[in-house]
Amino acid sequence: MRKFDNAREEWFQDPPYNLVDLYEEGLAKFADRPCLGVKNSRTGEYEWVTHGQIATRVARLRGGLARIGVGKDDVVGIIMNNSVEYPMVAHATYSRGAWFVPMYEKELLSAWQYIIQDSGMKVVFVASPDIHDQIASLRDSLPALEKIVVIRGEGDFTLGALEALGAENSVAAVKPDRDDIAGLIYTSGTTGDPKGVLLSHGNYTAMLKILRDSFAPLDEHTVSFSILPWGHIFGQVGELYHGAVCGGSAGLMDSLDTLIEDIQKVRPTALVAVPRIFNTIYAGVHAKIEAKGGLARILFNMAKKEAAKRRASGRKSLKLKILDKLVFEKIRGTFGGRLKMALTGSAVMNEEIKLFFQDVGIETYDGYGLTESSLALTFNGPVYGNLMGSVGTPGKHIRIKIDKTLTGENSRDGEIVAYGPNIMQGYYNKPQQTEAVMTADGGFRTGDRGWLDEKGFLHITGRFKEAYKPSNGKYVHPAAIEEDMKLNRFVASALLYGAGKDFTVALVVPDMAFLEPVAREKGLAAVDHAAFLEDEDITRFLDEEITSHLKQTYGGYEIPQKMLYSAEAFTVENGLLTQTLKLKRKKILDKYGEAIEALYA
To answer: CA geometry: angle at 525 spanning 519 and 526, to 5°?
Structure first.
């Protein structure tokens, strides 16, 4: 594998340079502070463990890994949702000099098999006996796999047994070098097979120091609510590892069904989230106000109007103070009443929604990055500014270049190429794909399209590999349009299509919770989703709802002229969404391609 020059000396002047030392540095300061909160299934209340309590188990587990032969550059995996055991496995693995590879509980068996095979995994920790049995059924195809460790429950070998071994076999932590590999994170594979992104200890520690520098207000008193999976780079680095570095704590989401109830119990002060969380709450708040009508709607609209005046003048009126108490305080209560800021990624938050939450008193900071950049390349934040519509400025020691080879020198935007100590070491076992994205001077071609303004803020305009050209030859960047379509309360998911065609079409999954009342008003049996989506009145209603909003922002060639409606949701479970809720375009087109093409008949 080619070794890239990502460890330039000017980038690394602030030790420590490995995750083990960085973890121990934080532990020395915050051992007695709460670390993770887990909901008690019996009482429904959150119970907290400290950083020190987790570290004690990390030390025992490290000894256990040593006893079963895990050492430098061995591969240790985990299949589990966010949990107290998750950081134990991660930090114990790092302190043996081994590679840590996360996987998701809600994943296809074939995906687990691919990752375990591709990485040459030696030991895998699994959440339950059921997952143990599924992995055990594949043993013949996994020659490198020696141990399957069941974290909760019984099996060939359990976490408790491994910790007991370690208690009898205390070993000192291995301190990896800066360029040693810390682990692999497999990309979600939206357009093909997942790729194992090789990240070094230097990559991770550089990223964590950049976050610490850019989000200085986050400290040991910070409380977050864990929504994003730690198997993804955003949740893992932005919340789990960053929390250990700054001494903060996180309450773990029990389930999406109880998200609002649980978040009010944890009462976070900060969130690491994707814009969809805020989009959902925004739509819910407005739908609730519309349903109430009367005085509630009058006060709500008054509060929004006064907040807009405050933004223009910089002064908070007595009227707004009263309305804040009557209206906005209740919305803040949805998040527990203490939430002050949220770091969001994966897409730029809609301007209207971002302004709404700012008015409510919750600052949202859009950032931009990839697994290949160990999380972030640019971000808005409390230290370096927050510019609406941008994804912020590059972090310390990160440089962004706009390559206009694909767009032409006269174009404002081009491909975003990134340099920095956080850039990956390559794709594991994929030298050709690595060569395709890495420049000769150590830069990483993101495949994303954007431009830098005069103040250094980055603006994203699309993704080259998702963009397509209709027959008119103009680029359509579907992701932004799809996100805007989902701002309509009647749309749960959408996918645009139209490469080489005379016009754009869309596959749309309606939000049935909002559409059912419309169907009932039209005399249809709302429970029969598939049937009422074939009704011309319903489809005409949806067509008008979707296109009327898009016409305010997009050109005619970008707006879908025909739509196919499906009652089947895109989910992680049916393989049509990634774990971070991005569309798996290839899978969706494999399933619906023939029906979509029929729209052009």
So the answer is: 50
Structure tokens at 506: 């869309």
Q: Which two tokens stand for residue 117?
A: 């095979």
- Residue 322 host element (H or E): helix 318-323
Secondary structure of residue 379 in the 3-state scheme = strand
From the list 162, 115, 107, the residue with the least C-alpha distance to 131 is: 107
Length of the chain: 601
pTM for this predicted structure: 0.86
Structure tokens at 454: 């005069």
Dist CA 323 CA 307 (whole Å): 9
Asked if residues 5 and 165 have their Cβ atoms less than 8 Å apart, the reply is no
Contact 420, 401 (CB under 8 A): no
Amino acid letter, residue 391: V
Q: What is the pLDDT of residue 1?
A: 39
353 near 278, Cβ under 8 Å?
Answer: yes
Element spanning 366, H or E: strand 363-368
pLDDT at 144 over 60: yes
Q: Is 285 helix (H, G, I), strand (E, B) or coil?
A: helix
Give yes or no for a contact between 398 and 420, defined as CB atoms under 8 angstroms apart: yes
For residue 306, give every residue at least 6 positions away whose Cβ sits within 8 Å of its Cβ, in sequence order, or none: 317, 319, 320, 323
CA-based nearest residue to 270, from 293, 297, 295, 242: 242
Average pLDDT, the chain: 90
Question: What phi and psi values does residue 567 have, to the nearest 5 degrees?
Answer: -85, -15
Distance CA 140, CA 142 (A): 6
What does the alpha-carbon distance between residue 17 and residue 27 come to, in Å, rounded to a whole number?
A: 16
* Residue 188 pLDDT > 60: yes
Structural domains in the chain? Answer: 478-600 (3.30.300.30)
User: 383 near 363, Cβ under 8 Å?
Assistant: no
User: 3-class DSSP state for residue 292?
Assistant: helix
Helix (H/G/I), strand (E/B), else coil: 252: strand
Residues 49 and 34: their CA atoms lie apart, in Å, by 6
Within 219-274, residue ranges assigned H as helices are 233-235, 242-246, 259-266
